[in-house]
Design brief:
Layout (H helix, E strand, L loop, with lengths): L6 H30 L15 H18 L4 H11 L2 H14 L13 E10 L2 E9 L8 E9 L5 E5 L1
Antiparallel strand pairs: 1-2, 2-3, 3-4
């Protein structure tokens, strides 16, 4: 190993090393956005973090539950349905609600205390998520489960079932 005796030379080499390290880091940072926008082959997604449709379901249920629990949130709930749900599902939910006298998104007359969304399998242009709604707290909470199907192409929710 070469040891430099002259402190001027050592400082110069450290400065060059820092410059090269900074250049390498800047190059890596500049390459990340390009890689992030590159098209990805359609394959079944198993990771919760990388599944945009799973995230859409979680965003929808979080915003929707907040909207229906807020006084005067009816307009917001309707706007959320229009944005996140496919038109055919929107129509199906209206019919379901008319015959069951309950909220079709939640499949209940009440509003849950909490929710949790877990991703499922994907195939044929769709992905499925499981939504767990928590209805009571304490030692023995009560849950209900919904299966939510989303279109991979649009990210919109296309089916809600029990």
């Amino acid at each position: 190993m070469l040891q430099l005796r002259n402190s001027q030379e050592a400082r110069g080499r450290r400065a060059i090393g820092r410059t090269l390290l900074a250049a390498a880091l800047l190059t890596a940072v500049a390459a990340v956005p390009a890689a992030a926008t590159a098209p990805v082959a359609a394959a079944p997604v198993r990771s919760d973090a990388g599944n945009p449709s799973y995230q859409q379901v979680a965003h929808f249920y979080g915003a929707y539950i907040d909207a229906v629990t807020t006084e005067g949130g009816g307009k917001l709930a309707t706007a959320l349905r229009t944005f996140y749900l496919t038109p055919p599902l929107h129509t199906q939910l209206k019919a379901w609600e008319k015959s069951n006298h309950a909220d079709g998104v939640l499949r209940a007359q009440n509003t849950p205390l909490a929710f949790r969304v877990t991703s499922g399998d994907s195939g044929a242009g769709h992905t499925w998520s499981k939504v767990r709604l928590t209805w009571s707290s304490g030692k023995h909470p009560t849950y209900s489960y919904l299966t939510v199907r989303s279109d991979l192409r649009t990210g919109k929710i296309s089916s809600i079932g029990e």
